[in-house]
């Protein structure tokens, strides 16, 4: 139980809320900000001045055809090129590093493929090289305010330790610490479960904007999940929440990499779909392309491919029915390979959902594909990395720029 | 996105926080309150004065052997007999109505058994009669600040409509509205899922105090659930969240009352345990007593009873494993008949959990029985009914007593 906030807490909260507004919704006039945040114009002006002095936003005359006669309301715009984060995605088959500016603008990116049998120690070198090349190309006065990495495994929140990642072996490498040290930017690198980040991304910038209770299901080799409840990522007691891929849907079913049998991952993962479709490894293509091939074949009438999708769709539908009963989400979003599987097996998934879920929570639930396509994890990593500066904008900037902006409106104006 | 609170919001929040503190933790000195809430003594004094004037708390010299020499710090005590709620529990076999005072004191209660084939229309009459007899015995200046009813079914949050209650037919009776009208106390009666209330109760006053991520599983004829995530009851998009009883654990398994097959409820509910134990209905005893008989028989070495508990424990363990993977709870609590089943089949439940759940979320999860025994739903209903007065103490009291206490410290002192 905590007592109400102090004046300084409120100012910090308001600064963060204003910055978050233009970060997520784009440039806005002072008038819009005043109305949307429920604050008066003089408060908005003071907050904007502080954020401008800290180099987080700038105020400009409105651009484009919207200009009208009279004195125009200034538009508050995030400093996208001057304030950025580094977002890393470590997938089973690919690596991505991006420099993402305030406002969610992907300023620059480096991508690489990764062989499934490649050495874990190469991973760090590739990530560092990618990040350095991005940082070198940033503007001279730009500041990196955070970094986060999405990983297909179970990550403990207290120390970002990867506890379980059966589909991508990194040994006992402490990825976040090692990366932070090698980068030398003076910022920590958070490590997060990829599907948790996907849920965050779709909630803030994708198919789930405005829906505060949603489930994101992500297929890669494995199957991950992320849950947004009451507008927040459900982390559970230690940050392991959302391991939907290891919900047992078919007791005694197919062997799962986790040691159990009949997990959702074992029944609907990439390897299982390919096996059902008679495309056992080694195949010409791996990963998402191989899954897409099966879905395309089914579209063209290939009986084996159709049957494979039907089987996988049945278990996916059962998993979704369970989630609908337990969580009553407004939305279930399919990303990664599950996006393609959903598109190929939607009728079967909905049919199982209709018999397996209670009417009440099923009636209004919407099933959708990820709006951010292949970038769900990357966008989520960027949003996670921005969280600190959005919670306490001036303090974080002051620390990184070593400038004293701790007290109100003293930032050299 | 919402801007920070106003001064009036903060005052309301602080009043609520102080009242909530003494409501949940019992009488406390001003010194303790100042330290616990992080407020200075003069603020505590002002808040306490306002709450005293509104008749919500009183200040007293400390009682008992703890008194020491010198000027004693006054103790702030909730006005338990003057401020109360009505809590209703509608179970399949029993009805309970209680008058619960601020501080969580059960002041008085009425209980009745209910025949499973009794007429739904009798229900309302019995609840009204019980409540009236309780209200008549309240002190003359006592005020009823809320009422809530726990029901074994799926309840829509927006209008408290019971959407699904297969084990207790109430037809199209709008229980909350009807009860509120008949009572004539000028307060609405909220209707909530019983296991959701159980989760709330165990979180605030039972085995789950201090654990902000927990799952409560409740067995009656059916099986219900309630989930606390980030310290809040997980309602989902429309309030149907927590229907764990209809998670399918055994596809194609036993027929469930919901129309699906192999739901947790169908595999571990009262009827299934009795059937496995060869005690098909009609049996001498129904409900919790019949379940206890099976557990007792197993304890005495009855092979059939043991085997029945082993089968039920296997599915219960699988359900718990799924919940541990998906939520990473710190605690799973078993209540109602599941309390007895857990005690009788703990070894089997833990064994299935060990193979079915990932190591990371399993290692620290604790399994416990409900600390509030048979009163989980009733205590949860009382806490739910107190929520409004704890959120805005003076406003609610002013409305109910029609006294103007809207502005600070004007309450006739």
Count of helix runs of chain A: 14
Number of distinct beta strands of chain A: 15
CATH class of the largest domain in chain A: Alpha Beta
Question: What is the CATH architecture assignment of the largest domain in chain A?
Answer: 2-Layer Sandwich
Helix content of chain A: 40-55%
- CATH topology grouping of the largest domain in chain A: Nucleotidyltransferase, domain 5
Oligomer: homodimer
Number of domains of chain A: 2
Overall pLDDT confidence of chain A: 90
Low-confidence stretches of chain A: 403-413
Q: Estimate the strand proportion of chain A.
A: 15-25%
CATH superfamily of the largest domain in chain A: ATPase, nucleotide binding domain
How would a textbook summarize the main sheet of chain A? 5 strands, mixed
Can you describe what's shown?
Chains A, B: This is ROK family protein. Chains A, B: Belongs to the ROK (NagC/XylR) family. Two copies of one chain form a homodimer. Chain A has 413 residues and is an alpha/beta fold. Chain A contains 14 helices and 15 strands. Chain A has a five-stranded mixed sheet with strand order 6-5-4-7-10, sandwiched between helices. In chain A, strand 5 (94-101) and strand 6 form a beta hairpin. Chain A is globular. At the A-B interface, helix 1, strand 12, helix 10 and helix 12 of A face helix 1, strand 12, helix 10 and helix 12 of B.
Give short descriptive properties of this protein.
homodimer; 413 residues; alpha/beta; Nucleotidyltransferase, domain 5; 2 domains; 5-stranded mixed β-sheet; 14 helices; 15 strands; 43% helix; 19% strand; globular; disordered C terminus; ROK family protein (chains A, B)
């Amino acid at each position: 139980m905590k007592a109400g906030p102090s004046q300084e807490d409120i100012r910090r909260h308001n600064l963060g809320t204003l910055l978050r507004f233009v970060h997520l919704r784009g440039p806005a006039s002072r008038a819009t900000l005043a109305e949307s945040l429920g604050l008066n114009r003089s408060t908005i002006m003071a907050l904007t001045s502080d954020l401008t002095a800290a180099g987080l936003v700038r105020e400009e005359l409105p651009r484009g055809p919207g200009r009208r006669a009279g004195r125009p309301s200034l538009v508050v715009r995030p400093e996208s090129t001057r304030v950025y984060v580094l977002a890393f995605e470590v997938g089973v088959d690919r690596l991505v590093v991006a420099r993402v500016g305030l406002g969610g603008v992907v300023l620059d990116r480096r991508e690489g493929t990764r062989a499934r049998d490649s050495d874990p120690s190469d991973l760090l070198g590739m990530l560092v090289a990618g990040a350095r090349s991005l940082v070198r190309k940033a503007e001279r006065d730009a500041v990196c305010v955070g970094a986060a990495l999405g990983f297909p495994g179970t990550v403990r929140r207290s120390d970002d330790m990867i506890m379980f990642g059966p589909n991508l072996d990194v040994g006992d490498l402490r990825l976040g610490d090692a990366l932070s040290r090698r980068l030398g930017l003076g910022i920590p690198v958070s490590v997060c479960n990829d599907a948790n980040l996907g849920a965050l991304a779709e909630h803030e910038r994708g198919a789930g904007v405005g829906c505060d209770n949603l489930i994101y299901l992500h297929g890669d080799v494995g199957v991950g999940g992320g849950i947004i409840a009451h507008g927040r990522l459900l982390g559970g007691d230690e940050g392991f929440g959302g391991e939907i891929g290891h919900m047992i849907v078919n007791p005694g079913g197919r062997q799962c990499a986790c040691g159990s049998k009949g997990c959702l991952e074992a029944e609907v993962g990439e390897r299982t779909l390919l096996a059902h479709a008679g495309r056992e490894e080694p195949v010409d293509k791996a990963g998402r392309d191989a899954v897409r091939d099966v879905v395309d074949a089914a579209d063209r009438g290939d009986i084996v491919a159709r049957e494979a999708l039907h089987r996988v769709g049945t278990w996916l539908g059962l998993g979704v029915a369970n989630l609908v009963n337990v969580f009553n989400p407004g939305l279930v979003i399919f990303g990664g390979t599950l996006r393609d599987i959903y598109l190929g097996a939607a009728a079967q998934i909905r049919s199982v959902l209709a018999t397996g879920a209670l009417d009440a929570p099923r009636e209004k639930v919407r099933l959708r594909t990820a709006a951010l396509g292949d970038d769900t994890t990357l966008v989520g990593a960027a949003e996670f990395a921005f969280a600190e500066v959005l919670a306490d904008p001036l303090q974080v900037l002051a620390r990184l720029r070593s400038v004293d902006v701790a007290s109100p409106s003293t930032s050299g104006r």
